[in-house]
User: Fold this.
Amino acid sequence: MRRYLFWGAVILLLAALPPLAMALGKGFYIDLVRRIMIFGIAAISLNLILGYGGMVSFGHAAYLGVGGYAVAIFAFYGFNNGFLQWGVAIAGSALVALAIGAVSIRTSGIYFIMITLAFTQMLYYLGISIEEYGGDDGIRLKTRSQFPLVDLADGVQFYYVVLLLMLGAVYLTHRIVNSRFGMVLRATKSNEARSRAIGFSPYPYRLAAFVIAGAMGGLAGALLANHTNYLTPDFMHWTRSGEIMFMVILGGMATSAGPLLGASAFLLLEDVLSGWTEHWQVILGPLLVLSVLFFKRGLAGLLAKHD
Amino acid sequence: MTEALLEVRDLRKSFGALRASDGITFDVSRGETHAIIGPNGAGKTTFISQLAGNLRPDSGRIVFAGEDITGLPAPRRARLGLARSFQITSVYPEFTALQNVALAVQARSGRTGFWRDARSDSSLTEPARHVLEQVGLRERSHVLAANLAHGEQRQLEVAMALATRPRLLLLDEPMAGMGIEESQRMIELLASLKGEQTIILVEHDMDAVFQLADRISVLLYGRVIATGRPEEVRANPDVRAAYLGEDS
Amino acid sequence: MTFELFFEQLLNGVQLGVMLFLLAAGLTLVLGIMNMVNLAHGSLYMIGAYFAITVTQWSGSYLLGVLAGLAGTLVVGMAVEGIALRTLYERDHLDHVLATFGLILFFNELVAILWGRFALFASLPSYLQGHLALFGDVRYPLYRAVVIVVGLLVAVLLWYMVTRTRLGMLIRAGASNRTMVAALGINIRLLYTVVFGFGAALAGLAGLMAGQIYTVQPGMGELILIQVFVVIVIGGIGSVRGALVGALIVGIVDTMGRAFLKPLLSTLLSTYAADTAGPALASMLIYLLMALVLALRPAGLFPARG
Assistant:
């Protein structure tokens, strides 16, 4: 019951935001919340493999990059069809995830972390070295992805598209983690030896989850590129992966509300801190360390306690 | 003549200079309850790990229902019908007893799905309930495994092994850490399975062993020094000297 | 491509390899013995560089700068271990990763506050400037040659320590079975602190030597850290020998790849294709190599654990 209340409230709030913001003359909130929701989708995708699957992938930003570049490169050549761009963003990210996952998931623990990190950095360097698409400086999006019926150039319409997609991501993940597949994924995280003993091989489940998460990350990347109208290899920098990871942890791992709460908290915090000082990371760094040490259950954990 | 369900031929495993398994040859017939006993350090755990697929033998063969499984990984063996319970309780602490067993049922079914809610899937929960009933945990179905008493967790271990509808049950000290009452219940449970299931039972609890076993193998320094019916083994002078002699 | 150029790049590859080894050796021991993923290792490298350059500029003495780099990194390293990392040993890898990631942000920004974001420049003392005349027409920068020699010397010293001393034996034992070492009554806390301090000093050494070759700015540690990870994955966690072999392989492959892949490709493809594909492929080379090693040997070339 509480779950429905929570999500009902969230949907209402988010749906009402644009008209409210316009009425108050604070249009930039639409931008901010849209950005939060896009990172929310990225966090949701990472939560699947990290929170539910127990896979510490430090390379998730790669899929944001692949998705973003899919959009940007097509636009560069004048192909603005949204279905084409986003389709390739999702499929491309899935393929990259398949390639990286196939090699990485055979390892575990420390190796897995380092390998996912290394592969992400490889993609980052790839992005930098291709001068054609801006190299280090990045690439500008001349027009946003074009779809029939909606005009993404209109900030408010784009906002609602993102909102729908985010809610879709939440629901999809919810179904996946409670399905037979999801139960095995969670069981393998909980006790791998036991899972193997009853007959589950972890590898195919983990790889499938990795690919799904990658595809969703690609969608987030496509949305992000449209949101910023601009794309740099920094989208794929491994520190980005760290930030998304923090959103998942801060919000509460393996919960459906966690990723969105975490993305909100992190980005709002970043917004506030960077308003105080350009050196906000010197405050954020220790804050993150402390949250790991003392705040493992995350924001969703706090909410659940008030039951 | 009951054919051998499991045949082990000259199994060897060394850790450096330590010969944990020193040429073990061993048979288990269909429907038999075969106990393995031996002092600590005899190599029981190493042996079980090799049977279950967690450890690769240096040499030797393991044949299960006519199929050579020596090189197969643990999940494959489980799917072929070789189920095990762990000596140190190894369940899913954050899932309920029902969900724990339902996962084992799911493993057996070999089917997966990405959409339908597994928690309310009766093709999983009904067989799970049945197994929980069988081991006596029906009332505790909805308790988180972490909150079960130690003895109940051991029962859950057995339940999960049973739920995969195994052809061979490998039970590693199912009564470890149990009090007298709990042990008695476990013995009754295992007795109820006799005949239908083929069981390899590793145990220290001599009461249980002599009540349940059709045959006993005694392991010492990685070798089987005696195999036979309980009375024979009890009377065997080597066994008495090496093992039982210390107790009686 | 001349022989001189080839040989020079080969030496550059060895020089990079030696730097990577200094960083990898400390990190792989920390990984193997303490099972801790320390992303902030690169920060120690950065601190070494900054301390060395600052003290050199302030005092006018290069040697004083070297000492400052080593001592400063050692102190900061042990402080970080004592304050922040000690509580993390019991925790899982995710916690290590996140906590040390937070440390990276903190240190990078702290350095930016104290020294600014722009690159620092260091000057070499006269006795380290100039070139070394090797055989034939080959001339190689003296400083880089010194770096290679220092690195190889450290490798020899480390080999001696790890294989011939009691401490080394404890380290090797700890890398292959931590719980056993603790069970034997060895003061595990002290061992951890020593190992960590050691690794920090090595990172500081690499950092202070790097100042003259690579750009000194906030974030410099992370650039090289990823390559260090590749080295460790290839070499095997917990193995100093693996770190050396892996480091030399990565250093040479990366340097030679960047230097020669584009010209090599242009003999096969069009100039345009070589111009784009060359640098791109060169930057991916060591990661592809890592993937290859993983496919064949998932635990690396010389894993410490059985």
Observations:
- The longest strand of chain C covers residues 131-133.
- The beta strands of chain C are 131-133, 139-141.
- Chain C has one domain: 3-296.
